[in-house]
């Protein structure tokens, strides 16, 4: 996990996206429920999908978009949906552009180039990559110790790009360092995005980049918002550990898999999903 500044995404677009998210969660409950996520669905309004795996009460609301936001936004804001749609679509485009750049910075440092990944497309721009926009709202909570904003998890994405509102901290990352193990707060840095290593780049890099365990906590006085873009491979792409990274002492640790297949495993096994797919123990 790291924070990215100087990323080239216009600040006014980020501000507009945050205002859109604020406006969405401020709608009356009966209005938000018009866009409720269906029991077996992915898109829409409701509790975050992983709240079922939390041992504490989840103190948050979430809204997920896969593909076009149009239908849901029309239900939420019958008069103003086009304005909000334009903002979300432009934001998603910028996130995809930034994610592709970050992917090449991360993969390039391992010696990987465009011809090594077929699904990156002929120019290596990841034109067909998938993106999920995930909005999270954490209202102030009278008893924060007894609740959790978002259960601990790793993201199923290749990488995720997170914008957090600047008024409160809440995102925490699990660190296992020389100084010990524990949860470390990731404070909002104005203008910066938090970048998470997800499970899919963990598999693609054969465990070189390790997906990061994180969670969100809540506080007594501040309403906190976050906007996460989960960036994944194209829908039908079979992703396997990059052959350039394999060798006699580096066997593939994971089988070929599509993102959808993995999301199915993740929905059942949550934080045990990645481990359940592992083919063998690391040799070093
Ligand atoms: O609210 C946050 O800062 C974290 C959100 C998150 O981890 C997610 O949506 O996957
Ligand atoms: Fe996450």
Automatic annotation (TrEMBL):
Q: Which domain of life is it from?
A: Eukaryota
- Spell out the molecular function terms from Gene Ontology: metal ion binding; oxidoreductase activity
Instruction: Tell me which residues make up the Fe2OG dioxygenase domain.
Output: 128-233
| Annotated PROSITE patterns | FE2OG_OXY
Pfam families per record = 2OG-FeII_Oxy, DIOX_N
Keywords recorded for this protein, A-Z: Iron, Metal-binding, Oxidoreductase
**Family assignment from sequence similarity:** Belongs to the iron/ascorbate-dependent oxidoreductase family.
Q: Please identify the protein, giving its name as recorded.
A: Fe2OG dioxygenase domain-containing protein
């Amino acid at each position: 996990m790291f924070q990215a500044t100087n990323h080239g995404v216009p600040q006014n677009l980020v501000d507009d996206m945050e205002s859109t998210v604020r406006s969405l969660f401020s709608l009356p409950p009966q209005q938000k429920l018009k866009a409720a996520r269906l029991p077996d669905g992915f898109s829409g309004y409701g509790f975050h999908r992983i709240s079922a795996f939390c041992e504490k009460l989840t103190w948050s609301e979430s809204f997920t978009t896969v593909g076009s936001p149009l239908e849901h936004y029309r239900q939420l804001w019958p008069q103003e949906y086009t304005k909000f749609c334009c903002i979300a679509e432009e934001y998603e485009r910028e996130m995809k552009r930034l994610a592709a750049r970050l992917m090449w910075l991360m993969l390039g440092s391992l010696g990987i180039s465009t011809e090594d990944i077929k699904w990156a497309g002929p120019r290596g721009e990841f034109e067909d990559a998938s993106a999920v926009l995930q909005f999270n709202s954490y209202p102030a909570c009278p008893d924060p110790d007894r609740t959790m904003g978002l259960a601990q998890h790793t993201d199923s994405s290749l990488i995720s790009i997170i914008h957090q509102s600047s008024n409160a901290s809440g995102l925490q990352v699990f660190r296992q360092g020389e100084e010990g193990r524990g949860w470390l707060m990731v404070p909002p840095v104005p203008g910066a995005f938090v970048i998470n290593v997800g499970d899919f780049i963990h598999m693609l890099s054969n465990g070189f980049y390790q997906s990061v365990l994180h969670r969100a906590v809540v506080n007594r006085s501040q309403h906190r918002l976050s906007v996460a873009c989960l960036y994944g491979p194209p829908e039908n792409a079979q992703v396997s550990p990059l052959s350039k990274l394999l060798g006699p002492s580096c066997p593939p640790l994971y089988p070929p898999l599509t993102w959808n297949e993995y999301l199915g495993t993740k929905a059942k096994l949550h934080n045990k999903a990645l481990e359940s797919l592992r083919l063998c123990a690391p040799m070093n």
